[in-house]
What does this fold into?
Amino acid sequence: MNLAADRKEKTTEERRKIRVLVVDDNPATRELMRDVLEQEGQYEVTEAGDGVEALKKLHKLPYQLVISDVRMPEMDGITLLTNIRAIHADIPVIIATAFGNEVGLKALELGADDLVYMPFRIEEFKFRVARSLRFHQLLTTRETLLAENRELWGKAITDRLTGLYNRQYFEDVIDGEFARAKRYRIHLGCLMFDIDHFKLVNDDYGHLIGDVVLREIGQLVLQTVRRVDIAARYGGEEFVVILPETTPDGVKLVADRLRQNIEEFQFCEKTPPEGGKMRQVTVSIGASYYPDPNYATATELLRAADESLYEAKNSGRNRVVVAWEQKP
It folds into this structure.
């Protein structure tokens, strides 16, 4: 038996494991999460009793995932999340909470990648952990490929002009997101919007300026939505955003913020059109939400958002119309 080779193989196996930091002031909860994950065989779990201890461990070793409770002594989970996003922006963070949607929404707005509601169901917990890691891997791969070969990656899943996902990728993932929401009975929001009177932008200033507007719209969308949201150029001047784990109030909040950010933005400031004065650019937004008994498929969820968008344009443009507030 070659002990040196055996030790080398064991070390290589440990390096391949995903390092997870579980933060909770309840030792029983930490132990349960550790046991569930380590039984999968691919995770190496470290524990911390509060946010202060967690930050110390994050400074010493790299972790691929952090799972944190909300209410803890010394430093709570929301403060820990804020610190992680300031120092380690790319580490996926799952917030575990027993305090309902209000705390969950706040955590997602501050950059949490997902939520686990306590007490958690083991299969759902494992699913959310795996999903957060897969999504982070996708983001990392996307950034790497963009750096190495922007044109190739743009043809794959990214719209080259706006920097958002393209329609093909969106259609590849929307059914899976809807199926997840349906299976676990969790929130899923959808926004569809397009640029008001975009034809006049092209007619008045030319298609090159129109492209600048589309590019800057893409940047504003990325600045407004979270990392876990799926924003895509749906076609021409039309866009779609899927908002996982977002309540109706949260969907409306994101839609209003996006509409306002676009309305207040000075477009084409770096490349002004001839004459120097750029017309104001606004968008109309339609929103839908699941769970809703009217939607059994992702197509029906999208159709409801599209119909709400149509209503927003017909009722004056530069506004948000939400499907669940419309009369049947």
